């Protein structure tokens, strides 16, 4: 296997050092290969967005990060500001959750799509021509006219397509998608997802897809990482995760998904999600876990390889959930 | 757009008509007999008093007086000044250039100073921000006559850099003469605009599209210009418009302090001696300045925020 495109190794992020240093990520390791779609799944506050943003060198204000986050071998965490801007323009870009808030409402669509290219020194005319092509590739009709229009003249779904076009403008090798469909209507979600996956495949980009929707992640991703309280608790191929979830949290998440083919009501995971700051010693999920033993509270379980899956659970071998 | 302009012009006409009535009425409600001033305090024959009263229509009922006055106003005749024995329109027009220069100069200082201090405070949180907050607090709280005295004492008397008195003639001399008055006039409002700018920019800095722009490798200065300052222009322009219109009133103090013969000083001297035709004319001018400034700001807003381009409903 060649070196992965994105390689996150033991990434730990602490917020606002000083009086209330709060950890938000703890020892996160993951990788995304060229052309691979990888899902990052977890509840709100589990740290998936922070992980995703860290790949752009965007950390919360005052946060301190340890570990390494390499793109093609270059550590993003130690990059100079100029190199970081170059990385953001050319190598990595992100599709944000809410296009309505993420695109400046006072500026034209053309300004948004060409912004990164212009910052990189592309002449205005060339950038606009390229922007029109990009808009066409995401299915915006009359792309030339659209460039001169304003965000409020577009629907949320159309605006998210504009956002994707803007993200692709720098021909990135890695695309980060932070819940790109959460703010959209169900009917437009499918369209946006199909555009995203088509372009990812066409361009051979690596994609890190952040979502709280395990089913959606499984449908479009090759591999999936499951996060809980700032840690990765399980990673597997998408089929493996559905077929043989190893971690009790993954099992719980799958059981909580409503299903059309079954009359059984979805069962929620009891308790409420913890943030890493509140997590006790030992396994953060132990308090909500039906299979917890006294030793689960003693030490943080290290991720172990079990038949191609990495699971951070002491009882992973005993508890196979078919 | 043409329809909007027409409706706005109609609105302005109605505003001016209503305020003209209020101005005229309040001047007449003020205590004291205009006729006795018009005679300069001399004891005059009843015949002379009657003649004066006749000339200024003081015997007519209030509404008739108003109708005669407003009838003249629409043709540009504001009556005769009692203290100068001249046409009010001519008096005001002769003093208007000095006042407009002063207002323009002060407005420039306000916009440049207000934006600069506000932006610096918003972008450099910490010591710089706190310094600007304290400084703008003091500036806002300093009355312009205090600022005028301080500036004269420092820059005219001690350093001798700027004259303390007079209008000046010619561009360079005028700017030289008007620098201290404009600074005294601007001080309070620089503080106000700096605070408005700071607040508006801080609000925009927290918006998601600012972070998105940064995440796309746009250099910080471009992010501030195109996303933060650009989006903060709405409140900034609204406050600037009101402030610049209000400068016309504020000039009365500064012009008196610096011995400038402008419209503000004319207003003060006219109020003192109850020269009511002048007071009425200048008051109307102030109203006109406010409605014009508001109109300009309203016309600018759709250019700042494209979402306002097509107003809903018929509110003008």
Automatic annotation (TrEMBL), chain A:
Q: Which Gene3D superfamilies match?
A: P-loop containing nucleotide triphosphate hydrolases
Keyword GTP-binding set for record? no
Q: Which PROSITE patterns does the entry link to?
A: ABC_TRANSPORTER_1 (PS00211), ABC_TRANSPORTER_2 (PS50893)
GO CC aspect terms:
plasma membrane
Stored InterPro entries: AAA+_ATPase (IPR003593), ABC_Ni/Peptide_Import (IPR050388), ABC_transporter-like_ATP-bd (IPR003439), ABC_transporter-like_CS (IPR017871), Oligopep_ABC_C (IPR013563), P-loop_NTPase (IPR027417)
Record-level GO BP terms: peptide transport
What family does this belong to? Belongs to the ABC transporter superfamily.
**NCBIfam families to which the protein is assigned, alphabetical:** oligo_HPY (TIGR01727)
The protein's name is: Oligopeptide/dipeptide ABC transporter, ATP-binding protein, C-terminal domain-containing protein
UniProtKB/TrEMBL annotation, chain B:
Residues covered by the ABC transmembrane type-1 domain: 96-297
Q: GO MF terms on file?
A: dipeptide transmembrane transporter activity
Superkingdom as given in the UniProt entry: Bacteria
Q: Which UniProt keywords apply?
A: Cell membrane, Membrane, Transmembrane, Transmembrane helix, Transport
Mind telling me which InterPro entries this protein's record contains? BPD_transp_1_N, MetI-like, MetI-like_sf
Transmembrane parts of this sequence = 100-124, 131-155, 175-194, 232-258, 278-300
| Pfam families, sorted | BPD_transp_1, BPD_transp_1_N
* Protein topology in the membrane: Multi-pass membrane protein
Compartments where located: Cell membrane
> Where are the annotated coiled coils located?
none
Where is it found, in Gene Ontology cellular component terms?
A: plasma membrane
Q: Which family does the UniProt entry place this protein in?
A: Belongs to the binding-protein-dependent transport system permease family.
Q: What is this protein called?
A: Peptide/nickel transport system permease protein
Q: Which organism is it from?
A: Nonomuraea pusilla
Organism lineage = Bacteria, Bacillati, Actinomycetota, Actinomycetes, Streptosporangiales
């Amino acid at each position: 296997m060649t070196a992965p495109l994105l390689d996150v190794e033991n990434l730990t992020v602490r917020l606002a050092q000083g009086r209330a240093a709060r950890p938000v990520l703890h020892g996160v390791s993951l990788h995304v290969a060229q052309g691979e779609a990888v899902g990052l799944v977890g509840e709100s506050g589990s740290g998936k967005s922070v992980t995703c943003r860290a790949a752009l060198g965007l950390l919360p204000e005052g946060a301190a990060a340890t570990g390494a986050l390499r793109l093609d071998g270059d550590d993003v965490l130690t990059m100079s500001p100029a190199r970081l801007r170059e990385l953001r323009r050319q190598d990595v870009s992100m599709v944000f959750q809410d296009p309505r808030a993420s695109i400046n409402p006072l500026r034209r669509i053309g300004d948004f799509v060409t912004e990164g290219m212009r910052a990189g020194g592309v002449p205005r005319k060339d950038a606009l021509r390229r922007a029109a092509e990009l808009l066409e590739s995401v299915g915006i009709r009359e792309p030339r006219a659209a460039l001169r229009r304003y965000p409020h003249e577009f629907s949320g779904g159309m605006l998210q397509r504009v956002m994707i076009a803007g993200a692709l403008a720098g021909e990135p090798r890695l695309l980060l998608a932070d819940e790109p469909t959460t703010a959209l209507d169900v009917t437009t979600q499918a369209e946006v997802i199909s555009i995203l996956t088509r372009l990812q495949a066409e361009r051979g980009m690596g994609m890190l897809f952040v979502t709280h929707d395990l089913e959606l992640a499984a449908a479009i991703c090759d591999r999936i990482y499951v996060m809980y309280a700032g840690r990765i608790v399980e990673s597997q191929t998408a089929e493996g995760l559905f077929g043989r979830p190893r971690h009790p949290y993954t099992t719980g998440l799958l059981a909580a998904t409503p299903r059309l083919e079954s009359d059984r009501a979805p069962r929620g995971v009891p308790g409420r999600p913890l943030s890493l700051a509140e997590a006790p010693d030992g396994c953060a999920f132990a308090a909500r876990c039906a299979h917890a033993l006294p030793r689960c509270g003693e030490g943080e379980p290290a991720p172990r390889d079990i038949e191609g899956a990495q699971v951070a659970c002491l009882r992973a071998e005993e508890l196979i959930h078919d | 757009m043409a329809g909007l302009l027409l409706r706005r012009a109609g609105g302005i006409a109605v505003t001016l008509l209503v305020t003209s009535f209020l101005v005229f009425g309040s001047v007449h409600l003020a205590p004291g007999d205009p006729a006795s001033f018009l005679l300069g305090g001399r004891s005059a024959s009843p015949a002379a008093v009657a003649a004066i009263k006749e000339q200024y229509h003081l015997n007519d009922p209030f509404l008739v007086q108003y109708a005669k006055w407003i009838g003249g106003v629409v043709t540009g005749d504001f009556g005769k000044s009692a203290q100068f024995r001249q046409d009010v329109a001519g008096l005001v027009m002769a003093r208007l250039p000095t006042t407009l220069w002063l207002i323009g100069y002060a407005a420039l200082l306000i916009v440049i100073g207000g934006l600069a201090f506000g932006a610096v405070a918003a972008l450099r949180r910490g010591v710089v921000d706190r310094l600007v907050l304290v400084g703008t607090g003091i500036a806002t709280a300093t009355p312009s006559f205090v600022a005028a005295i301080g500036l004269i004492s420092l820059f005219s008397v001690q350093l001798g850099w700027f004259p303390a008195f007079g209008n000046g003639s010619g561009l360079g001399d005028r700017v030289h003469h008007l620098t201290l008055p404009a600074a005294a006039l601007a001080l309070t409002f620089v503080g106000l605009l700096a605070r408005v700018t700071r607040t508006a920019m801080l609000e925009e800095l927290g918006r998601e599209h600012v972070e998105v722009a940064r995440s796309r490798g746009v250099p910080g200065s471009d992010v501030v210009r195109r996303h933060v300052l650009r989006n903060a222009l709405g409140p900034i322009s609204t406050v600037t418009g009101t402030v610049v219109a209000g400068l016309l009133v504020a000039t009365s103090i500064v012009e008196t302090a610096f011995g400038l013969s402008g419209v503000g000083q004319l207003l003060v001297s006219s109020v003192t001696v109850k020269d009511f035709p002048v007071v009425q004319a200048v008051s109307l001018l102030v109203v006109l300045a406010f409605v014009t400034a508001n109109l300009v700001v309203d016309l600018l807003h759709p250019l700042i925020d494209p979402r306002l381009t097509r107003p809903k409903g018929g509110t003008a």
